[in-house]
Amino acid sequence: MYSWEKPDDRVAIVNMNSELRHAQLELLSAECATHQLRLKFTVEDLARFGQRDVLRKSVRAATALSQYYTSIEEKIGIAEPAVPTQPYLTEEHIHSFAEMVASYLREQRERFLPSAAPLAQHQKALMWPYFSGETLERVRLAELEDSRIPNPPFYDKIRSLGFVNLPEVTHMPGLTLIDVLVFHEEPTVRSLFHALVHAVQFELLGLERYCQMFVRSFAKTKLYFSVPLEAHAFSLESKFLGSPALRFSVEEQVGLWIKQDRY
Predict the structure, then answer these.
(1) I need a surface site. Which of 10, 36, 109, 112 has the fewest CB within 10 A?
(2) Which pairs from 102-110 meet CB under 8 Å and 24+ separation?
């Protein structure tokens, strides 16, 4: 059994929660798709005209998932733990923290830019169906060996206001610093794709607007992975991994969310 007292276990727990968040996004995607079925078709029509093998496989998968998560629920108890009341952030707070985030990203970008290099040809080849050539030429990548990106210095101030669940930058695979992708380890196809999505968001929104949206959403949701900017990156990542034959433009997807005011 894992323990927070053991350093190796702490890393494993962080990785476990990362995988849990990926699973949650996949479940949300399936829930949305099922909701669309529910809105368009009756249960009777699906049972009568739906493709039998697809229906049976869907039922088996849903039943297995229900049993699995029910067993987890029995371990943690149905009652949710009390959540401390979070302070309300004024507009002044939001603007102040957004400026701090922007300053941090600029400083870290300048720190790692000299050691960053263009994407390798094989990385561009993997990503070109989803990102424009301009994006793939513009970004730079740095892979760290003996150092890690530090947590922002203003974390203590945010925590003092009662906010928890701040993203632990030092434990993340890497971080997108506007147009510089910095990784703590050799980037996987998944982590590279995810980082590039954020680079596109920075490009289309601009640094200041991105930071304003991020801080405002985090103040509302209290969860890093519930911030639409992050949730959208995970959603596109899941789409990329789940349907390799399906080509789509990340720039178009991000632009659509901006147009629809979904960030």
Answers:
(1) 36
(2) 102/207, 102/208, 102/211, 104/152, 104/153, 104/154, 105/177, 105/178, 105/207, 105/211, 106/178, 106/207, 108/149, 108/175, 108/177, 108/182, 109/177, 109/178, 109/179, 109/180
